[in-house]
């Protein structure tokens, strides 16, 4: 970790402010909160608002208000008055862009990443061909071989690009010990050269989250099992950035509806706001989430 005190437990909830606080996210918050309290650690709220079109201030406020209503008080993070509490901020990703740019530039300089100028149409055609051939869809590395002169020419032409990580060892097994599930392994050749950022202005999830967890000294990442496929990518990013010890991962089962699909609006109320309007008490919701 960047500056973590020895054995200090630091966990985080990192929602995107694109809608009201979902009961599944609230349940993840509950387990993070309880784990931090049990171990005399810190519970951090981080707002992942790198998508400027979908991220709204009203949803950030909704998240904060409903966490407070549930009694899941965090030790560090943004507050309702647009300020923050804690010493590891900023706690909104939109305020951390210079930090992401610094690490993206470093990866490019060290030849661990490259600019990819492939269009959406080219990528879609590539994907369709791979599926037709019975191969897993992944980027083929077409733009890896561009010379500096070719890259500069495309930049001067104003062509859009994404920054991709060079997934160097394609025959490697990427393993991690999940606190809940034990050892999990992925084949690196299934990942391809995945994207880190759209230009420098829009860092993508699997890049930004690694930088943030490192700089915020996160010791344990407790999140839903739908994030398991993201974990090997984040391990590769962390290694490329030469960050120190990785946080421990714990992937929680998701809340399912009666039809055993992921809980959604078609199953009924899914946001904490809806439960509040129906008259539920915070204690009742906490009890409900704890025993799911």
What does this structure look like?
- By secondary structure, this protein is an alpha+beta fold.
- It is built from nine helices and twelve strands.
- The chain has helices at residues 23-38, 57-70, 97-109, 120-132, 148-156, 205-215, 230-240, 272-277, 282-290, and strands spanning 10-13, 42-45, 77-78, 84-85, 113-116, 162-165, 173-178, 182-187, 195-198, 202-203, 220-224, 248-252.
- The strands form five sheets. A four-stranded antiparallel β-sheet has the order 5-6-9-10. It has a two-stranded parallel sheet with strand order 1-2. The protein has a two-stranded antiparallel ribbon with strand order 3-4.
- Helix 7 links the parallel strand 11 and strand 12.
- Helix 6 (205-215) packs across helix 7.
- The longest helix has 16 residues, at 23-38.
- The mean pLDDT is 91.
Task: State the main characteristics.
292 residues; two-stranded parallel ribbon; 16% strand; 4-stranded antiparallel β-sheet; alpha+beta; single chain
Q: Mind sketching the topology for me?
A:
Blueprint: E1 10-13, H1 23-38, E2 42-45, H2 57-70, E3 77-78, E4 84-85, H3 97-109, E5 113-116, H4 120-132, H5 148-156, E6 162-165, E7 173-178, E8 182-187, E9 195-198, E10 202-203, H6 205-215, E11 220-224, H7 230-240, E12 248-252, H8 272-277, H9 282-290
Parallel strand pairs: 1-2, 11-12
Antiparallel strand pairs: 3-4, 5-6, 6-9, 7-8, 9-10
Helix pairs in contact: 6-7
């Amino acid at each position: 970790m960047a500056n973590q005190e020895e054995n200090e437990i630091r966990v985080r909830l990192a929602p995107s402010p694109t809608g009201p606080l979902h009961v599944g996210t609230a349940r993840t918050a509950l387990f993070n909160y309880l784990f931090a309290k049990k171990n005399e650690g810190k519970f951090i709220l981080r707002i992942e608002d790198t998508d400027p079109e979908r991220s709204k201030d009203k949803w950030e406020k909704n998240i904060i208000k409903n966490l407070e209503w549930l009694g899941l008080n965090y030790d560090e993070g943004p507050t309702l008055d647009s300020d923050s509490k804690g010493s590891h901020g900023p706690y909104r990703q939109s305020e951390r862009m210079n930090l992401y740019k610094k690490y993206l530039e470093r990866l490019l300089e060290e030849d661990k990443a490259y600019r990819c100028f492939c269009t959406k149409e080219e990528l879609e055609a590539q994907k369709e061909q791979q599926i037709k051939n019975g191969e897993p869809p992944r980027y083929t590395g077409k733009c890896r071989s561009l010379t500096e002169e070719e890259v500069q020419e495309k930049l001067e032409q104003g062509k859009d690009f994404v920054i991709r990580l060079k997934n160097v060892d394609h025959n490697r097994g990427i393993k991690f010990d999940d606190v809940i599930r034990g050892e999990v392994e992925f084949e690196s050749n299934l990942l391809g050269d995945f994207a880190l950022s759209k230009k420098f202005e829009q860092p993508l999830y699997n890049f930004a989250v690694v930088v943030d967890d490192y700089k915020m000294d996160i010791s344990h990442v407790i999140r839903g099992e739908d994030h398991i496929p993201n974990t090997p990518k984040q391990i590769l990013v962390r290694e490329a950035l030469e960050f120190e010890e990785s946080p421990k991962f714990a992937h929680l089962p998701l809340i399912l509806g009666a039809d055993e699909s992921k809980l959604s609006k078609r199953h009924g109320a899914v946001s904490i706001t809806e439960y509040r309007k129906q008259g539920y008490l915070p204690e009742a919701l906490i009890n409900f989430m704890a025993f799911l």
